[in-house]
């Protein structure tokens, strides 16, 4: 259990790997993911390292596979992903893999080249077919009439041009030729693939003389129009059309066969491309890791230095033996622990349940080596503080249901490998959301709040019947009820108040006029109690850090003054809250003094205030003692500890910079004393956001759902269905997503700033083991 509350104990180890066994040993270490390799060649250029050629060959294979993958996706073929994790290929297999990928790439490129040439030829023939058809039917009468009237025709050009460029082309042709051409056009109904689907038109141009012919051709070339020869006689056009149709049919058959062959090649590749990717990237990772090692003078042994957990040394040794046996080497690999003064990396073992909470802590800062890990406590405190702000039974049920769906179907959802970043972020925090929903259901039950409505499960503890009974002292009548907009229930009258509600807040407060005032007082005090308790717990955790790192000075002149300062001031305030709740009943509650005024008078040493009576006997003496103790703690942290550090500085012969230490201690003391006040006030956000969420839920109910429930006609059911739809959408969008995100961020701030700063430095660096899992998942930073 010690590893759960503190980072793993790490050690620096030296690896001696035989050259023939190094590849297999690193492969086995990558599978278990328990060692972090150090770069022993920081001054050597990347291109000058021993295995740079192997890395380049792996990159070239990866490039070819990406080309194949791109072609598969372009053909809309599903890539098969069976979840298989193949073993790393041996170095001898690299030649066969390179040959396979080279052959596949060349075959696909050749197919693509031939297919493009065939499609280009097919397009030209298709355009020529449309030209022949149009000139045969649509332009025949025009040509005959033109020749008959002028008898000056000396040339004819037919061409294909994009439909969107027709007006510009016509204007240019008319201006350059000065109107001495005759042009007719017809649209091609079917779009042509050139290379995408485009709409084109057929033109036929009649002109006189070679000079106009050259001008027309230059204009056509400028507009990138395709020119085709067109016979002048109908018979020649008919014969040419028949030949074109025959060639088109032959080309279509060849194109179909080429596409079928391409599909077969890609479908076969789609079955194994993922496995190929895994093998190539594993090989590349191994050679990249081998480049971090040193090679001894005999060139027969590789030397590596790794960080690894002490508890996993046996597993690492076993992996090295397995790799040595797989390589066929007879010389075993050696793993030696090294003594070092370097700070090890921080490694916190996590599961799928705790990883989300550890990520919350690591986002603030990676913990220093072996200091207390806040994540185990965050598992409870984070969702609980979130729920205090978000407390609603109905909303908690919705959030729990959504998270439960992600948890129960996690295996299937992981296999789908969604690319949606937002969904992946929510899915990664599914256990956090689940606990937030469960705790929200609990706090919603305490607040007795379900979609802004109260649940009357056990019956209210208040009754108005005794107020009508004159024998028992009641003075209300039915006329009084009818003529009064509001009346106050007096708990001092016998029978009006039978006792507190069994759990949570009495449902009668939901219809009370002073509901908001009551909840304000209750939730404000609750926020202070939770905040002070949370901070005192954080200060207490610092004691375990001081004990572990054997720093008695930090205990006597750090922890003890800090805990006394906070306990004497704000811990005392919490005790006063509980004392007032317990000591004053319904009969004497009107005489209860104000805690806020009493707390202010405590700091001002003002005990002559007749408007605010003491809470208990001896209050003045106790409060003076507490103030004196709290004030004495400040110079103890600021001056005494600094003087002790100075003496240590003198004894240790300037082993550390005393000026920096003194300034740091002064800043820490001032920050802590002021932070106790500001941090306590910061926990009032629990009260503010809780009230805001409850009021927003109530406003949404009254403005939306109340409309559907107010109708009593036959069409009211349809209206209720429509209104409920909008109510559900607004509830999810505003109260669940927006308000939930707001409460999440505030709970995050309370843990980072108010809780963790009491004991958590967060100045370490993360343990990044060499593992194939992170490489295949695309986490390049690992």
Automatic annotation (TrEMBL):
InterPro entries: V-ATPase_116kDa_su, V-type_ATPase_116kDa_su_euka
Keywords: Coiled coil, Hydrogen ion transport, Ion transport, Membrane, Transmembrane, Transmembrane helix, Transport
Subcellular location: Membrane
Pfam families tied to this protein: V_ATPase_I
Sections of the chain in a coiled coil: 58-121
Molecular function in Gene Ontology: ATPase binding; proton-transporting ATPase activity, rotational mechanism
Transmembrane segments: 379-408, 428-447, 528-549, 555-579, 620-644, 714-738
Topology in the lipid bilayer: Multi-pass membrane protein
Cellular component terms per the entry's GO annotation: plasma membrane; vacuolar proton-transporting V-type ATPase, V0 domain
GO terms (BP aspect): vacuolar acidification
Major localisation: membrane
Family to which the UniProt record says this protein belongs: Belongs to the V-ATPase 116 kDa subunit family.
Task of the protein: Essential component of the vacuolar proton pump (V-ATPase), a multimeric enzyme that catalyzes the translocation of protons across the membranes. Required for assembly and activity of the V-ATPase.
Protein name per the record: V-type proton ATPase subunit a
Species classification: Eukaryota, Metazoa, Chordata, Craniata, Vertebrata
Gene that encodes it: atp6v0a1a
